[in-house]
Amino acid sequence: MQDYLVWTIAGFALVIIELMTGTFYLLVLGLGAFAGAIVAWLGGALLAQVVVAGIVALAGTGWVYRWHQTNRKAQGAFSNSLDVGQMANFEEWVNKPSGLARVKYRGSTWDALVVSGEPSAIHHALYIVGQEGQTLRVSTTQP
Known about the structure:
- By secondary structure, the chain is α+β, with helices and mostly antiparallel strands.
- The chain contains three helices and five strands; from the N terminus they run H-H-H-E-E-E-E-E.
- The chain has helices spanning 3-21, 25-41, 46-75; strands at residues 87-95, 100-105, 108-116, 125-132, 135-139.
- Strand 4 and strand 5 form a beta hairpin.
């Protein structure tokens, strides 16, 4: 089998797997494999193919890493949830001094960390400001 076909198959496999993960890292590795395929198709030696594929993959991986870091800082560490801004109803305190409570949201009970304000009564409206694992971060003021 020709070298460029091996690189192309590897590139397509990486891109297809990336479609299932959504991290973009495998996408840039797939682009690196396609760059290696182009060098192979142009008649470059195996070393040139590997070097070009590696350079493209490393540059792309660095770019994706920086993009993830920039977006994480811009959004805040815990504000990546689609539920931010939605209302939840206070049910009870689990540990009032540490701010842990139970809230009713989307028809089920969730653990929540009250990050600002203090609910005054049961069914008091709280607003989701983020999510940390399975624990909602809530506030009495709307974000």
